[in-house]
Amino acid sequence: MNPASESLLLLPGLLCDRTVWEDQCAYFGARYACQVPDYGTLDTLSGMAEHVLRHAPPGPFNLAGHSMGGRVALEVLRLAPQRVLRLALLDTGCQALDPGAAGETERAGRMALLRIAREEGMRAMGRAWARGMVHPDRLDSALFDAVLDMIERRTPEIFAAQIHALLARPDALPLLPAIACPTLVLCGRQDSWSPLARHEEMAAVIPGADLAAIEDSGHMSTMEQPEAVNAAFDRWLRTPVRA
């Protein structure tokens, strides 16, 4: 297939928008039809995936998901594997909410952040939440301000819906060994939210997966190190699609 005729769907994560993919759209936009969906107030990952499929260009497409968007990408693959030419999973995970105390701790933490968003506003919540999003050297930087700006464009209602989706996330681990398309698994080496070890485990069970660790980057790899991410995407998008 001619790359000029291919689409590249770029799925954002929790409270993120096109900003998280801005550098990738600029770099690849002349070669691929780039599309960044907006989930609105959808509150399940499967609902988000169905929305992506309804609004995707006709025919097969290349699919990349960052953070929560990676989980949505796996749901898209589960629902319509024949539509996905190539898959990229960035700074993400695949397992359901942990049972017992670990899961309750995650739930309580997310609910506490939602209370801040409702009582003090989204930017105040972002300042409390997003400090773990980027490499420590990028705190108090223009990039961190851009992350806060992105969070502030969302609402507590959207935050509540996406928290609901993440707390009810399905276990996608059994799906990984059946993935048949060229797959890139990418992670910032200093990602403290979705650590590299988790991505190594995912890549190990996806047939033929390519693992890329992005140096000097936290969770927001597409914004923190866009050139390195674009180079990894270049290799991924040039991988021949399996017959």
Weakly predicted, low-confidence segments: none
SSE topology string: EHEHEHEHHHHEHEHH
Specify the CATH homologous superfamily of the largest domain.
Alpha/Beta hydrolase fold, catalytic domain
Rg, rounded, reads: 17 Å
Task: Calculate the mean pLDDT score and round it.
Answer: 95
What is the third-level CATH name, the topology of the largest domain? Rossmann fold
Approximate helicity band: 40-55%
- Report, as a whole number of angstroms, the end-to-end distance: 12 Å
Spell out the blueprint of helices and strands.
Blueprint: E1 7-11, H1 22-28, E2 33-35, H2 45-55, E3 61-66, H3 68-79, E4 84-90, H4 100-120, H5 122-129, H6 142-152, H7 156-167, E5 183-188, H8 196-205, E6 210-214, H9 221-224, H10 226-237
Parallel strand pairs: 1-2, 1-3, 3-4, 4-5, 5-6
Keywords: Hydrolase
Protein name: 2-hydroxy-6-oxononadienedioate/2-hydroxy-6-oxononatrienedioate hydrolase
EC number: 3.7.1.14
Can you tell me about this structure?
- The chain is an alpha/beta fold and 243 residues long.
- It is globular and about 55 Å long.
- The longest helix is centred in the middle third of the chain and has 21 residues, at 100-120.
- The model has no long low-confidence stretch (mean pLDDT 95).
- A 6-stranded parallel beta sheet has the order 2-1-3-4-5-6, with helices on both faces.
- The chain contains 10 helices and 6 strands.
- α8 (196-205) links the parallel β5 (183-188) and β6 (210-214).
- α5 (122-129) packs across α6.
- The protein has 2 domains: 3-97 and 170-237, Rossmann fold; 100-165.
- Pfam families: Abhydrolase_6.
- InterPro entries: AB_hydrolase_1, AB_hydrolase_fold, Carboxylesterase_BioH.
- It comes from Pigmentiphaga humi.
- GO terms for molecular function: hydrolase activity.
